[in-house]
Amino acid sequence: MSLLTTRGLSKSFEGLQAVNDVDFDLPQGEVRALIGPNGAGKTTLVGMICGRIPPTSGSVSFDGCDITTLPAHKRIGLGMAYTFQITSIFAGLDVAENVALAARRRMSGDAVEEAVMAALTRVGLSDRINQEAGDLSYGHQRLLEIAMGLVQAPRLLILDEPTQGLAEAEIAAFKTLIRELSDNTTILLIEHNMSVVMETADRVSVLSFGEMLAEGTPAEIHANADVQAAYLGTG
Ligand SMILES: Nc1ncnc2c1ncn2[C@@H]1O[C@H](COP(=O)(O)OP(=O)(O)OP(=O)(O)O)[C@@H](O)[C@H]1O
């Protein structure tokens, strides 16, 4: 069964059709990469899924319930967690406090500290718990955001360009992390790094000019002439 479904989902910004009539199904347990040229509408689509951007038309369902008009914080309560291109950490708080804030959205008491350590260990930041978040490298800040998502034990984890700004070794660790998480979490990954897409995604969806152009396994998408043309066409 699909954990996440969109039907006819569209968004226009003052006449610009950023997302156009998108039908999207994400089965439970899958790692799905969402790719497409710059400006294709990926962030807008995911923003509508998370409840940050109201759609112009169409619907979003999560676990069989229509959530089209549900506010973002209530979607988090249902088990959606997401990290965005713009970092959402509190720079003046230390690493553990940032993750604890996210954890307290769904737990309290001693459970918080335990969950914080588990999440930070998973992303490889457990040796930096007392460091001020603002002093972390950009790549480590991205990992911190992932820990803030993970600590909520989400059913669906949405990551918008998580490897942007990461060094090669960190990208390799990220691929391993995604494969480990995929045992119990459905993952939607906006990603420009094709090696990450090829090595972590079960399937790939391709947006182009706001429309779903293709969907398939990484190998099918890699060989798809329409996809290649879409990337060439927009540089
Ligand atoms: N708030 C907004 N107001 C007006 N236009 C917007 C707004 N947000 C996005 N757009 C436009 O909508 C289109 C899709 O943008 P979006 O950010 O969703 O694409 P994207 O695929 O995520 O791009 P990128 O890979 O560069 O992040 C673009 O033409 C963008 O300029």
Automatic annotation (TrEMBL):
The keyword Nucleotide-binding applies. It comes from the Bacteria. SUPFAM superfamilies: P-loop containing nucleoside triphosphate hydrolases. It holds the Pfam family ABC_tran. Residues 4-234 form the ABC transporter domain. Keywords: ATP-binding, Nucleotide-binding, Transport. Transmembrane segments: none annotated. The keyword ATP-binding applies. This is ABC transporter ATP-binding protein.
